[in-house]
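hi support,

uploading two proteins for the ticket. first:
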Amino acid sequence: MELVFVGLGKMGRSILEGVLAAEFLPPQEIGIVERDAAYTSELAEVYGVEPLVHADIASAKRALVAVQPKQFTALAENLAYPGVGYISIMAGVTTRRLAESLGTRRVVRAMPNLAATIRKSTTALTGPREAREAGDLEFAAGLFKTVGDAYELPERLFDAFTGMAASAPAYVALVAEALADGGVKMGISRKDALTFAADVLIATGELMRFKHPAVIKDEVASPGGTTIHGLAALEEAGVRSALYRAVEEATKRGRELGEKG
């Protein structure tokens, strides 16, 4: 068994679907373990993969741990087997804690975001020397590239990455909703306002691949025009500093989750 998925919630399913769609692994080389045998069998039939129990992890090359961080302590002893490499997507759970709980330093810490559900995730990866030497980091990079882009990042920056990139879909969705509300206030229909907001955010994201955000802003904001007046209102409202704070507070929370574990 090449890979066992431990937990198949929204993110676990998205990764599994990406792996199958990209043919990264054949279905017969993928197993899943869920909270009870009946549910495991049900999901295995849906995806055409193997239904397993925790003891089967012992014969797998690698396991993807996709459970809630608060569940990990109770589950760890049922997941720990020698010779297995582990990939975790649990927020705040450090490689040190993973290694101590699972009895191996073949651990990779990964942090994807919600865009994995549409295969547009930005995923950060990190792991100790043992994970690199065993090919676990390389495997994890290929795994997460089936649902977007994957980048290696020093672990000291992981909480900041979580507070920024992993949480960013929520921040950007809030901005999009507010833009749409503004359009509705000015007479645009709700349906059209949401469509326009989504289109603009997608297009701006593409522009940022080629241009710095400040350049985009300056190119849109002509002297004395509508945009510069709108930007002035945003600055007066403290939108920029509010986003700084959002990233800062989410980063702090990520550290707290790790410490509590």
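and the second one:
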Amino acid sequence: MTSEQSFHAYEPHGTGMAVRLNWLRAGVLGANDGIVSTAGLVVGVAGATSSRGAIFTAGLAGLVAGAVSMALGEYVSVSSQRDSESALLERERRELEETPEEELVELAGIYEAKGLSAETAKKVAVELTAHDALTAHADAELRIDPNALANPIHAAIASAVAFLLGAMLPLVAILLPPPGLRVIVTAIAVLAALAITGMISAKIGGSNARLAVARVVVGGAAGLALTYGIGSLFGNAIS
């Protein structure tokens, strides 16, 4: 069995994603969710009633509920990720204690598979192991930094804040104008904000900005039209 074949099957050796870009993308998506969900809610209510109090109450309730939901979902998700990473790190730590020579061969095999000569790969593995064995193996085998595990509390707060910032826009936009302009002003503000978030998302992901903006703007416009139509239909039917 070669050193490459001795890799543990349960350990993911694939390329890791850029953590900072993922956090930035998550923030943009959280703000986008806040914009879309709150806008749909207040526009739908505005289609059913012109009462500023009713619109504000519904929008505020949606804003709070959405932020709590986002925070809870992010907390659970990141907690699960952290638990999985901690378990992998503990298993790696135990293997380094019990079978250090096999782990050294495994680490050398990883670098050899990346293009280093067998001699150089072994030298790199030996030096990295001497410096910090766990960090070396966690990085090469698991793409995990033991000193930078995601914090679920920070993730929950960031998600909630991003959602709140996005949700504030449609809530303010629909409350300030007179009744006859509320929906129009809100739609313009929301679609402009969605265009910006779509452009930022495309910039982060390196994708086509025009296509990303078109998708999010068309989707947002369709959502606003749908919720306003439902609010008008059922509002009139009930009244």
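thanks. also noticed: The chain has one domain: 21-234.
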